Amino acid sequence: MRIGIDARTILNPAEEEAPGIGHYASQLIRHLFEIDKKNQYVLFFDRRVNDRDISQYKKAKVEIKYFPFHQYKKFLPGIYSEMLITASLKKEKLDVFHSPKHSIPSTYRNKNLITVHDLATFKHPKLFSRKRISQSKKALSATLKRCQKIIAVSESTKNDLNEIFKIPKRKIEVVYNGLDRIFFSPPREEEMRKVLNKYKVKGKYILFLGTLEPRRNIPRLLEAYASLKRKESLDYQLVLAGKEGWLASEFKQMVSDFDLRKEVIFTGYVPPKELNSLIRKAEIFVSPSIYEGFGMPVIEAMACGVPVITSNVSSLPEIAGEAALFVSPYDIGGLAGTIRRLLRDKKLQVELKEKGQKQARQFSWPKCAQETLKVYEGLKKSK
Q1: Short-list 292, 334, 291, 327, CA closest to 310
Q2: What is the 3-state secondary structure (H, E, C) of 284-307?
Q3: Do residues 169 and 288 share a domain?
Q4: Residue 297: which domain range?
Q5: CA angle 274, 263, 280 (to 5 degrees)
Q6: Same domain for 72 and 158?
Q7: % the chain with pLDDT above 70
Q8: Cα–Cα dist 64/367, whole Å
Q9: Is the pLDDT of residue 72 over 60?
């Protein structure tokens, strides 16, 4: 079988969510190479990448190809850019073409599939900028109609595809994301101290990790934290780790209004190599999102042995199983009370740590690659 994969998000992410998709594509490809010695792979990049970056993907039974000049779409109508990409794909005589993001050329009719990671802009449009909504609708809506198969990263996402777009469930396969094994291994103590010093974290802290944007429910988390500081004299910092997204400046203003500038830390983007240290040293992890397609930070925290509080909506109960405490993302008092309860109950913390690590081990990249390969094989055999 000759399998093509769009690998452009790995080395030159351009969209807001592309770094996460790039990580997914990178891990999937690496583990497909490890488990599959039979099939031929064709990876598609564009000319923005350099030979040094590409070299890691040059292996037996792997071909590297380049899509046409990536800036054509700035000078030509979109259909011409798609026609050029289609010509590149047809030339390779692929049995299956996989786009890890929501993008299949409208003129490509051979067997293809996409991975759908998140439908937040469709489920909760008020939580996103008009530009983000427009980009999502343009990228996904048409692609869903013409792709032959869809990989959803959770049962929740599969159900959303069926509900919003009326996609038949038989067209959708659920393949969970994997989890990097590094999160099960603690870094050296010196390394962890260095990371905490970098972000000026002192003493005990509650951690949130993710892009700072409205769907992550930052305002209610700040309100819950502020109420605990007022009523309980809470002796914990709140660390908000992640790059700044839409309306992040308003969250900072809230912190100032609550007079919590010394207690709330905004780290900005945290490089992958520092995540293990930052997560592992937290007392508890809180993810009160209004919507997640998968919720990777939740299982990363579980793997690190950190007790988790998360929302009882979208994919989060599915991914967290029985290894977290659940709250309504709209209940500020309930969130504050659950944080208080977990911080006080050391026995519950130990119980959640044990359950969390067991839950996190269910997600692995070799398993993700094996199940994705089965989807390729099924698509090739289909009429």
Answers
A1: 327
A2: EEEECCCCCCCCHHHHHHHHCCCC
A3: no
A4: 181-360
A5: 30
A6: yes
A7: 94
A8: 25
A9: no
The single-letter code of the amino acid at 17 is: E
Query: Which CATH number does the domain housing residue 195 bear?
Result: 3.40.50.2000
Statement to judge: residues 259 and 336 lie in one domain: yes
- What single string gives the DSSP state of each residue in 304-320? TT--EEEESSTTHHHHH
Which residues, other chains included, contact 45 with Cβ-Cβ below 8 Å and sequence gap of 6+? 7, 8, 10, 11, 54, 64, 65, 66, 67
pLDDT over 70 at 1, yes or no: yes
Domain match, 104 and 137 both: yes
CA 132 to the chain's CA centroid: 17
CA 40-9-134 angle, to 5 degrees, is 130
Residue 204 and residue 170 share a domain: no
Dig out the tokens for 54 from the structure.
Answer: 């590409």
Interatomic CA distance for residues 167 and 171, integer angstroms: 7
Least confident of 36-45, 51-60, 162-171, 247-256: 51-60
Statement to judge: residues 117 and 53 lie in one domain: yes
At residue 190 the predicted structure's pLDDT band, cuts being 50, 70 and 90, is very high
Are 192 and 93 part of one and the same domain?
Answer: no
| Per-residue pLDDT tens over the stretch 219-265 | 999 999 999 999 888 999 999 999 999 999 999 999 999 999 999 99
**CA dist 134 to 122, 157, 194, 220, 337, Å?**
10, 20, 41, 27, 38
Which residue in this structure is represented by tokens 């992550």? 216
pTM of the model as a whole: 0.94
Question: For residue 16, what pLDDT band results from cuts at 50, 70 and 90?
Answer: very low
Number of C-beta neighbours around residue 324 at 10 A: 27
Reported for 198-204, long-range contacts at CB under 8 A and 24+ positions apart, including other chains, are 198/274, 199/239, 199/241, 199/265, 199/267, 199/270, 199/278, 200/265, 201/237, 201/239, 201/265, 201/278, 201/281, 202/237, 203/235, 203/236, 203/237, 204/235, 204/236, 204/237, 204/283
Report how far residue 304's alpha carbon sits from residue 279's, in angstroms, rounded to the nearest whole number.
Answer: 7
Residue with tokens 């046409």: 68
Q: How many domains does the chain have?
A: 2
Question: What pLDDT is stored for residue 17 in this prediction?
Answer: 42
Length of the chain: 383
Q: Does 71 score more than 60 pLDDT?
A: no
- The answer to whether 222 and 212 are in contact (CB under 8 A) is no
